Amino acid sequence: MSTFVLPHSEPEVAVNLTPNLSQEQLLSFPAFKNWIKTLQHSLATQKNQSHTFHASPYRLRKIDIQSVDYFGGKRLGFVKLQAEVSNSHGEKLPGSVFLRGGSVGMMVVAQVILTLQPRIPAGSLSMAELPAGMLDNSGSFAGGAAKEIVEETGLEIPASDLINMTELAIPAASSDSDEQLQQAMYSSPGGSDEFIPIFLWQKRISRDRLQDWQGKLTGLREHGEKITLVLCPLDQVWRQGGRDSKVLAAWALYQALRQDGKI
Prior knowledge:
Blueprint: E1 3-5, E2 14-16, H1 23-28, H2 30-44, E3 59-71, E4 75-86, E5 92-93, E6 96-99, E7 103-109, E8 112-119, E9 124-129, E10 132-134, H3 141-153, E11 163-164, H4 165-169, E12 185-186, E13 195-196, E14 198-202, H5 207-213, E15 217-218, E16 227-232, H6 237-240, H7 245-259
Parallel strand pairs: 2-3, 7-14
Antiparallel strand pairs: 1-2, 3-4, 4-5, 4-6, 7-10, 8-9, 8-16, 11-14, 12-13, 15-16
């Protein structure tokens, strides 16, 4: 196991690596870069006298990398770590973190297209979800969403036709004293850095084309994706896809933004 000091950290933060992870790999991992930048900015906001923790601010003291997973044996995919964050009184904040980076979710409204696919971590072979996928840190969120729609549904939709509902609903940080979080839904902020901007595509579709989509098999088979498309009426999507947080977030955003006249 090797150790290095996190660059530009004050106080110095020791990072303990696993044998199969190098300093260069960790520091270049997009999910780690975004997480550490966001955390360090949030910790810096404690300098403001109005901050809840101003009198006894918390500091990042140490990072222990516990395990890593690679995609295809080469590309770093997931990192599990323990971050020690404490104040001068020895009080600690929970710091068990699963780093996987951002994803995108897409609500396609003709009828709503859901995907049925195996989700072994949830113990399911047929989980109903919004079409979604991990961001690869190239291009825009909208471009990533359009790419995932093609992979999961076969629909080719220009990125310019997608509406970022989370961006419409969540105001951007207005000053450096605000935390610099993503304009996105955080699906499990108690344990993971994953953030998901939710996009919308609305279009009138012929009945014949809708019938072609129902039950269609899609997904990248070489990546182990086995996806079946299912069509769901908009007023029933909260029921059929209610186990998926992306479905519930998209449905709530769609209803609220329509009520406010923003879409």
